[in-house]
Specification:
Blueprint: E1 4-11, E2 14-21, H1 22-116, H2 129-132, H3 140-149, E3 160-163, E4 166-169, E5 176-179, E6 182-185, E7 191-193, E8 198-204, E9 212-217, E10 222-232, E11 239-240, E12 245-249, E13 259-266, E14 269-271, H4 273-278, H5 286-290, H6 296-310, H7 322-326
Antiparallel strand pairs: 1-2, 3-6, 4-5, 6-13, 7-12, 8-9, 8-11, 9-10, 10-12, 10-13, 13-14
GO molecular function, one term: metalloendopeptidase activity
Domain M23ase beta-sheet core: 179-273
Coiled coil: 60-115
């Protein structure tokens, strides 16, 4: 019976004998082997599931980080959008305000054009106010009037400009300050001319600052200043014509050498005198592009209107003086020794500006 396995089990209830044949032993071993394989497969499957879970957790954490980053980006984008929206609203408000101002200005210009009649253009494509003022249509006499009333041209014969308009290092004080005019280098005693018709508003003689100085008040809020003079040839209140000799250049006041300090102001604000020094009949329109602190359209329209009012009938046209329109008395200016007794030369509308 060697093909039979006997198993004896003893206990309190007695002894039992089990007999296993070869077939049963094989079946039992096969079942045991299958169970072990099953356990190994289950262990491998559990490890696989655990790896998948770990990988899913890692990807989830990464997705959460990306989501948090996207949330931050979204918040930043929302804030940027709100800022852009706020700027857009401000721009819309500004555009609306500018549109209203433009409409009001256009209406005023239309009214002025109606009053001026054919002397000014009625409209241009685009409604651009800058082009509404058709410079080419301004009569030559109006240009000459403008060049006699508003400072232009050289106040004296000078060698070069030693200091321009704007910030500069002061040659005496040694620090950077605003320079409100031009320093025109010239020999001591060079004649200084009035750059436009006007009234001498101020004459001062000092040992510091401007030194000997003349301030001339012109039409429409313009003023010109002439400083560091050697001698002054006009008195306060005198009317001067464009081109009149009002002084001689020097080196008085706070100055390091002979020169003329020349300023041009409008409504109390300093302007760069260089475009005015270069301004003449040949380049009449150039100043209007380079100097935007002055409301040229309305100013030139006013001059054109005044010219129309001053213009006599063709049969009665004679030379006449601008001074006669603003002052009942003949203006006075002085030469190097005494006030001139000769009558002031009248300003002729048909003459070319000096």
């Amino acid at each position: 019976m060697k093909d039979i396995l006997h198993i004896t089990v003893s206990g309190n209830n007695g002894t039992r004998h089990l007999a296993l044949t070869v077939e049963r032993r094989k079946a039992l071993l096969a079942a045991l082997a299958g169970f072990v394989v099953f356990l190994l497969l289950m262990f491998g499957y559990i490890r696989f599931l655990q790896w998948q879970a770990d990988d899913a957790g890692t990807r989830l954490a990464k997705n959460r980080e990306e989501l948090a980053t996207l949330a931050d980006d979204l918040t930043a984008a929302r804030e940027a959008f709100e800022q852009v929206e706020e700027q857009r609203l401000l721009l819309e408000t500004s555009i609306a305000r500018k549109t209203e101002e433009l409409s009001a200005a256009t209406e005023r210009l239309d009214n002025l054009e109606d009053k001026l009649g054919s002397g000014m253009p009625t409209s241009l494509d685009g409604g651009d106010l800058a082009h509404r003022l058709d410079l080419a249509s301004i009569a030559m006499s109006s240009r000459e009037v403008t060049l006699n009333l508003i400072p232009n041209g050289h106040p004296l014969e000078y060698a070069y400009i030693s200091s321009g308009f704007g910030k500069r290092k002061h040659p005496v004080k040694g620090r950077v300050i605003e320079h409100a005019g031009l320093d025109l280098v010239a020999h001591r005693g060079t004649p200084v001319h009035a750059t436009a018709d006007g009234v001498v508003e101020l004459v001062s003689r000092r040992k510091t600052g401007y030194g000997n100085m003349i301030l001339v008040s012109h039409a429409f809020g313009f003023k010109s200043r002439y400083a560091h003079l050697k001698s002054i040839e006009v008195k306060r209140g005198a009317f001067v014509h464009k081109g009149d000799v009002i002084a001689y250049s020097g080196n008085t006041g706070t100055s390091t050498g002979p020169h003329l300090h020349y300023e041009v102001t409008y409504a109390g604000f300093p302007l760069n005198p260089k475009p005015f020094v270069d301004w003449q009949l040949d380049n009449y329109e150039q100043l209007f592009d380079s100097e935007n602190q002055v409301p040229w359209p309305s100013l030139l329209a006013t001059i054109e209107s005044l010219r129309t009012l001053w213009q006599p009938p063709l049969s009665q046209q004679e030379p006449y003086s601008v001074a006669s329109l603003s002052s009942p008395a003949t203006s006075t200016s002085t030469d190097t020794s005494k006030e001139s007794s000769e009558p002031t030369k009248p300003f002729v509308l048909a003459e070319t500006a000096k």
